[in-house]
Every structure is written in structure tokens, then in C-alpha cells.
Amino acid sequence: MKLQRILSTVTVLFLIQAGAVMCLAKDNKSRLKDAAEESAKAANALTEIMGIPDKAIPQTVFDSAECVAVFPSTIKGGLILGAQKGDGVVSCRTPRGWSAPVYLDMTGGSVGPQIGVQSTDFVLLFMNRKGADHLLKNEFTVGAEASVAAGPVGREAGASTDWKLNAEILSYSRSKGAFIGAALNGVKISTDNSDMKSIYGASYNARALLQENKIEAPPGVRAFPDALGRYSSRKD
After folding, report:
1. pLDDT tens digits along 122-174
2. Terminal Cα-to-Cα distance of the chain (whole angstroms)
3. pLDDT confidence bin for 103, thresholds 50/70/90
4. For the segment 210-231, what is each residue's pLDDT rounded down to a tens digit?
5. Is residue 45 a contact partner of residue 172, using CB atoms and an 8 Å limit?
6. Which long-range contacts (CB under 8 A, 24 or more apart) does 157-165 make?
7. How far apart are CA 139 and CA 191, in angstroms?
8. How, if at all, do strands 81-94 and 67-78 pair?
9. CA-CA distance, 98 to 90, in Å (whole number)?
10. What are phi and psi of 62, to 5 degrees?
């Protein structure tokens, strides 16, 4: 009887452990699927924006960027006090091409006369190494820790040198079909550690991903860096 109780206990513990492993595998599989969809959404948003040259990011500006982040379908809403929340991905140039994507969260607030909820695509271009280095932190605030300016739009705007002056980040927004340069101040951008661990493992390193390109992205999440490669004429 005693042996039977021991065997029963061991069996129960084994089943619990097996169930936990299966749940973890299912959760990681689900997160990887979500990450692939997020990368695809960012790629689609970029494709739609760059598909209208007269109103898109000028090629000279795009080719000068060290990193590009896209936050598709960011939700903005409120009455007097507003808030915004969005998920996005970023990839940087490396000698081996555009890096594996890093997954980000955007949060921020605003004050002003606003009513209702709207969905907005945000695009951030990190124009120099100093700006790109902010992405190696777990969190930073646009406009406080990193200087930001509204990016130029269209063919003619690309000839201007104003965008080259001081801003570490050029920001854009698209809402209701209109794509414009937008001053995106005060929002916090942080790394989505849950997604990153699911995709790259617990020992992932942002520098190894974004600057050294030493970590390969699973094929399912390559949609965004592949789209960047299609629209950039600069070859490092």
C-alpha cells in the first residue's frame, strides 16, 4: 500500500510537471504567432506609407536613418486627459543588413481638448548613433532623453537640410489616411521583455540584436526588417 501511494504521488507530480511544460510551450507558440503578426502589421504599415512617394518619407531621409521603428494601430483616446498605448517593432542597420526586430511598447499621455478614440500609425526614424543607443536601454522618454522633431514628408522635403540639424529622432504619424511629420513628445518607449524572451530566449541581448546582428530572427518575424530592406537604397 505504501509503495502504491508513493507511485501515485510520483505519477501525479509527473502529470503536473508535464502539463506545466505543455502550457509553457503553448504560451511560447502563441507569443511567437503574435510577434509574427505584429511584425507583419508594421511591415504593411510601412509599405502603405512608402507606396505614395509624394506623401511618404523622402528617400534621402529614409536612407540616412540608423534605425526605424513602426507602431501600427496605436490607440489614442480620451476626453480632456488623453492617453495612448501601442506595440511596435524596431530594426537597425548593420553590416549584415537590417537587424532582427526588437519588440517595443509605447505609452504616453496628453492634455487638451480631445474626444473619442482613434487609431494612429507612428513611425520613428533614429537618425544617428546617439539616437540609436537609446534603444539599448530598457526604457526611455522621447523628447526628454532623446531629442525629437517632426519629420519631413514628400519628394520636395527631402531636399531640405533642416532635418539634419539636431534631432536624434524624426517622428511621423498617420491617422485617417493622412501621413504627416508629428512632434511626438513625452511618450515612453520600453522593451517588451515578454515577447523578446519568447522569441530569442531569456539570454537575449539588445546590443547583439540591433548593433551586432549576431542573433538570427525566426523566419516568422522577419517581415519588418525585410520590408525595410526593400525601401532602403543605402547599402552598408
Report:
1. 899 999 988 999 998 888 988 888 888 888 888 656 555 565 666 899 999 88
2. 72
3. very high
4. 888 788 888 888 999 999 999 9
5. no
6. 157/58, 157/61, 158/58, 158/59, 158/60, 158/61, 159/60, 163/61, 163/127, 164/64, 164/127
7. 7
8. antiparallel
9. 10
10. -60, -45
The dihedrals phi and psi of 194, each to the nearest 5 degrees, come to -65, -45
The grid coordinates listed for 86 are 501601442
Please give the grid coordinates belonging to residue 137: 536601454
Give the H or E element holding residue 94: strand 81-94
| CA separation for the pair 140, 163 (Å, rounded) | 22
- List the Cα angle 134/127/143 in 5-degree steps: 55
Reduced to 3 states (helix: H, G, I; strand: E, B; else coil), residue 122 is strand
Measured distance CA(34)–CA(174) in Å, rounded: 23
